[in-house]
Amino acid sequence: MRKSDKKRSSSLLLGSVRVPLKGLAAAVALAVVATTGPATADGPDHGPVAEPAQQTQPGYGDSEGHEPGLDPTPERAPTSEVSWLSFPGGVFAVDSLGHTVRYRACDGDTGRVADPNMRVAAGVASGAVVVGGVAYRYRVPLVGRSEGTLEVIPRHRPPVELTGVVVTSPQPPTDPVAGARLFPLSGQLARVVADASLNPAGATVRDLSGRYGDQQIAVNGSLRPKAASVIKLWILVELLRRVDCGQVSLDDGVLVTPEDIVGGTGQLQFETFPQVVTLHRLAQYLIKYSDNVAANVLITYLGGFAPVNALIDSMNQRSTILARRMLDSAAAQRGEENYTSPDDVVSLLGAVWDGEILTPDSRDLMIGFMREQTLNTKIPAALPPGVPVAHKTGDLPDASHDVGYYLIPGTETAVAFLTAGPMATGDETVRRMARTVYDFLVTPADGAVEE
């Protein structure tokens, strides 16, 4: 992370900065919109395979994948119909097309609330809603990296004004000229995707270092395959968000019983139960070993699917849903499935990296767990030995994914490589996409590859 980002995220999200709001009635809303390793890592699954989008998405400000040297900057920064405001301890999500908002913070969750009087003008959404006796007056630009404001007005107490960074998916580049240098990678990835005849595939890549102006590019970024174990990243973020809010401690213990044990990937299944397992170990094993027992225990501990889906909805990630537990074949046969997309994964990874959804301490812990990943047959296997990565795999008989961070100093990058179709050929497609991105990142202007 750049020093400027560290300074900004620390000032916004250090644990000493808290919003002293109490008594929000989380269940009350004006209107609620429903949120809608090995082959056995997530259990058997034989639902329909998602088709890939047919259009390459080279990135912000350039719909044709222009070569460097051409100015990709539009006359005015494009707006997004869905934006969310990041402030200490929470988010305020805005859907300007659907005229809905959602406040979710340490003190409560309004749910998705209709604001039929929302005003959208000059790329800014503004309005006010009242939920449970608390008023929320907002002014949120629909352009990422802007500053928005939210005034929270509790009954019989002074109002609190919150300001923060506006997050869109994708975020606009900080330097469109530098960002244009990333566009040729779109064409290279598109060729890999086109060659994967058995595996609909998608890739989204976001520069985190500033070397490419924080540009994001995608090929089939809206592809929506089964999420497999990649969904565990959202489970972890929701847990760490509660740690940041002071609601739980990672030293807290959870009773795990023999009834909680499932197979597939993981280490807990080989231990003796019942026993109390700390939240820290559950969180670590969730990622390090892609532990299915840890995933299911944490889903129960967090209160089921709804809180994780509330996190997803508050970040406006429309392709992602948690709808079943790990290795729940009965649920899968009923059509209850977990899904995500490359764009949504990078939206989450970028928000974590930038300190927009977790505090710096929790962000570092999460990335540390991802660096300990023991299932290393995809991204790490495609790269030269010793290249630093932090990642999370996902495997099903009809899905193969690997997502995470390339941590090459000065070229830090978030990546999401997702495929549907046969796992074996999907693994190879992921490795090819991973190596394509690596070669692009380490190739200087003269074309020589740096190892």
Notes on the protein architecture:
The structure is a single chain. With 451 residues, the protein is of the alpha+beta class. Helix content is 28%, strand content 22%. Strands 2, 3, 4, 5, 6, 7, 8, 9, 10 and 11 form a ten-stranded antiparallel sheet that branches. Strands 1-13-12-18-17-16 form a six-stranded antiparallel sheet, sandwiched between helices. Strand 8 and strand 9 form a beta hairpin. The two termini are 22 Å apart.
Question: What are the defining features of this structure?
Answer:
single chain, alpha+beta, 10-stranded antiparallel β-sheet, 18 strands, 28% helix, disordered N terminus, disordered C terminus
What is the CA–CA distance across the termini? 22 Å
- Strand fraction band? 15-25%
Largest sheet: 10 strands, antiparallel
Tell me the helix content: 25-40%
How many whole angstroms does the radius of gyration measure? 21 Å
Query: Which geometry do the CA atoms define?
Result: globular
Tally of alpha and pi helices: 12
